[in-house]
Amino acid sequence: MAGAATLAAAAPPDRPAPLTLYTDATIIDGTGAPARAHQDMLVRGQRIVAIGPRGSLGGTAGAVTVSLAGRFVIPGLIDSHVHLATPPDRARAEAVLRRDLYGGVTTVRDMADDLRPVAELARAALAGDIAAPDIVYAAVMAGPPFFKDPRIGAISLGVTPGSAPWAQAIDDATDLHTAITLARGTSAAAIKIYADLPPHLVATITAEAHRQHMLVWAHSAVFPTRPADVIAAGVDTVSHVCYLAYQVEPVMLAAYEDHTPVHEARLAPSGDDPVTAGLYRAMIAHGTILDATGSLFVRADAGRRAHPERRPLRCTGAAVIRLTQQAWRAGVPIATGTDSVAARDHAWPEVDDELEFLARDVGLPPLQVIHSATLVGATAAGQARDTGSLEPGKLANFAVLTADPTADIGAIRTVDLTVKRGRPYWRRDYRPITREEMKADDDN
Predict the structure, then answer these.
(1) How many domains does the chain have?
(2) Which of 43, 70, 226, 268 has the fewest Cβ atoms nearer than 10 Å?
(3) pLDDT by residue (tens digit) across 136-149?
(4) What is the domain-level CATH number for residue 409?
(5) pLDDT category, 11, cuts 50, 70, 90?
(6) Rounded to whole angstroms, how far apart are CA atoms 42 and 59?
(7) Does residue 321 belong to any structural domain of this protein?
(8) Residue 6 pLDDT
(9) 397: closest CA among 369, 365, 375, 429?
(10) For position 202, which CATH number holds?
């Protein structure tokens, strides 16, 4: 996997970094290892110094002690698929980010937007000027037809659609070295390959991005590029497990703009689909992470039962569950992306729905769901060196729960405290989203 720049820590002040000792917690470290009861964790400034059995740590003189007896500590959650600025709305974005942070989310992966406001949000989050997770983001590349999409106009104000460094139209005449360099200039960690590109351009974009030390995040089908060719190009993550089912189509859709749903009857009638199995073998060989976004499709099915006039998505919820189950059995690493925003009155982060999808619909054990939402997500975002698991040397990014998530993943909604980069955010201080902040969503 190609490297990506990690989010730099704020410059240390002249005074010594504060020392905090969190005591007597049950720690679930995000690696998939069993929970460890009665643990202490020492944090200096932004980083974890040590973790060990209660009372065993040295170097705690002068530390502020926070008792976590009876509490469960997990790494900060990671939403691997958000859109913060399509179109830009600073108040709305800050409100959603605030809900995320106070609900235990410490990192989000922005999957292409107007990067001018996203970069400002990322800087403010990093500095602690706003209550928000750290933001890792991508610049988007797609074929010229995609740039007729009205969403592109919304993120390209003042710039000809397709010519912005953060949203570039690519064809055979494009100087890809320059295009990737321009994207890097936005401080994006990755290129998102979106739509309307043939296989050879998907491959050459990926190779040049990796050469310039950027990650590559792609839709699992780029249209007309099939999933097998997207995976073969060596992209680091693929989004939307549904789109993988287009591999079984005898004729691939020519363009992203054709929203013909997957013909699910072409999948094997029972058991693992053999065509999809080949895709999963290739993903494991390439180290490709799956950003399944499954809860979105399950929720859409429920919505259509109440409102049958709504247009169906490309897959049913049942197909998405089945494909994700097969990915899990095959050993494909799965991240927890949402690609959606909950209504204003929703009290908890959207990513909680994706955790429940993996646990309750797909059947993953809770420890593995937490692993997906933490260390796998950090790897997808290129941030695993600094976050995603509870280990000495990593950022003090964690959530404190009042109930055991290994017994019931629903405990993810019992966050009492979030710590991001060593700074505490107590749930009791959370300010719910107001009508003014999310006025456009009142009809959700």
Answers:
(1) 2
(2) 70
(3) 999 999 999 999 98
(4) 2.30.40.10
(5) very low
(6) 9
(7) yes
(8) 60
(9) 375
(10) 3.20.20.140
